[in-house]
Specification:
heterodimer; A: five-stranded antiparallel beta sheet; 22% strand; B: DNA polymerase, domain 1; 5 strands
């Protein structure tokens, strides 16, 4: 096994171009498990911990540009106020030890359908910034996941950052598992309300070959909120509309039976999660001072 | 490859390290520091909790090369007498296997939150598994170490 430890981003991109087989490692919460348990023995491995700019975030063209190496702990502490949905999801990742090392960049690189960061990123139309020696490109999050643990990255690319708009309204995230900590989601759901554009974003985790959005559910609830003038009236959404929203989210999922749960359970749980998250988020909106 | 790191304030060097080796393997098998326990090797159990440049981590998930030039503090070098004593007094040690990791994790909590609530204690120790299931006394011990029991 070869070990690369680039000191700068430019050096990392050159190494990746020369050694496309090199597996990037940041927090090690996925890669080290594979190596320790001998599930994978990469020909080469590239440590990204030394690259300072990967661990930085900044404001960028009205968005937040967050380096792929920013840990969950730092996301929660430093950006929780501006990205409440992603922070809620981050709090459900592993344990303090895992959140101190794990990164959203790693979550995106692994591209597991169960990755906790993915539903809030989908719900907020995040953008993934990929880089190589031939340049930088932005991939919309809903085009990033191409299959189970597969993504739109080329072999010579690394994840530089992700870009996301600071929240303009309430966001919620909820996840089903056997306990509060150290859980891979049985299923999860994120919702984001955007009062500025009168829009609603959704993200479904661990209930399909990739993380998914629920476009029909989004359009349905957006129409309800507009038709009944609810954004202005700040009145309750009817129970029947909330139930319909949950049902449409469940219908958008493509779950399978596996060790963590059955497809039928996942669909049922998603309908409940979606209804609850939408209720919480809407109450946050209408009861805000 | 060679890995040079500072462990508990003392420089440590290991040669002929396999590139896929974890920090936990380095600590135990090359530096003979057996306090950090090896159980799950997947970050699930917290038995190998150490400080890496002051941050609480699972040593099994740190690649040896990532520890190059870094400062490691293990249970052997921890300024943890207060927490350790509280574990003894509270009867929080049964088989003892999870104890080093729990002491390091509790130490980290009390550094960040000197007077934690029960919810904060549970959250901070959520990544440390005790298979004797002596959690009630472990939580007692952390309360005691914080001076609130």
């Amino acid at each position: 096994m070869e070990f690369f430890q680039p000191a700068t981003w430019a050096e990392a991109l050159q190494m990746k171009a020369a050694h496309p087989e090199a597996v990037p490692i940041a927090g090690g919460t996925d890669v080290m498990v594979e190596i320790n348990l001998d599930h994978q023995r990469p020909a080469a491995i590239m440590d990204l911990n030394r690259i300072r700019e990967l661990a930085e975030w900044e404001r960028y063209d009205g968005m937040l540009r967050i380096g792929a190496g920013v840990t969950y702990t730092r996301l929660i502490d430093e950006l929780g106020d501006r990205l409440p949905g992603l922070a809620m999801a981050s709090r459900t990742v592993g344990s303090p030890q895992i959140r101190n090392r794990g990164t959203v960049g790693g979550n995106l690189g692994t591209a597991s359908p169960a990755g906790d960061a993915h539903p809030p990123l989908l719900a907020t139309d995040a953008i993934v910034e990929l880089a190589s020696t031939s340049g930088t490109r932005h991939v919309a999050i809903h085009e990033f996941f191409t299959g189970p643990k597969r993504n739109a990255m080329r072999k010579d690319e690394l994840i530089a950052a992700f870009l996301v708009h600071p929240a303009t309204g309430p966001q919620q995230f909820s996840k089903v598992g056997t306990r509060n900590a150290m859980v891979i989601a049985v299923c999860s759901f994120a919702v984001s309300l955007d009062p500025t554009h009168r829009s609603v974003g959704t993200g479904i985790g661990s209930a399909g070959p990739t993380p998914l959005r629920a476009p029909r559910a989004e359009h349905f609830i957006e129409d309800v909120l507009l038709d009944e003038n609810l954004w202005n009236r700040k009145a309750e959404v009817s129970a029947s509309a909330l139930k319909r929203f949950g049902d449409l989210v469940a219908r958008a999922a493509k779950p399978i039976d596996d060790v963590r749960g059955t497809a039928a359970y996942r669909r049922h749980a998603l309908a409940v999660l979606a209804r609850r998250c939408m209720t919480w988020a809407w109450n946050d909106y209408r009861l805000a001072a | 490859m060679r890995v040079s790191t500072t462990v508990n304030g003392t420089p440590h060097v290991a040669d002929d390290v396999w590139e896929g080796e974890s920090l936990l393997y380095l600590l135990r098998e090359r530096f003979a520091l057996f306090g950090s326990k090896n159980a799950c090797e997947q970050g699930e159990c917290g038995s190998c909790s150490v400080y890496l440049d002051g941050t609480l981590v699972c040593a099994c998930l740190v690649l040896g090369g990532q520890a190059n030039g870094r400062e490691i503090v293990t249970i052997e070098g921890l300024d943890g007498a207060k927490v350790q004593q509280a574990f003894v007094v509270a009867g929080a040690v049964q088989c003892g296997f999870c104890t080093p990791g729990l002491v390091v994790a509790a130490h980290d909590l009390l550094n960040r939150v000197p007077n934690p609530t029960d919810a904060q204690i549970r959250e901070a120790l959520a990544g440390n598994i005790c298979r004797c299931t002596g959690y009630a006394k472990i939580i007692d011990a952390v309360r005691l170490a914080a001076g609130s029991a």
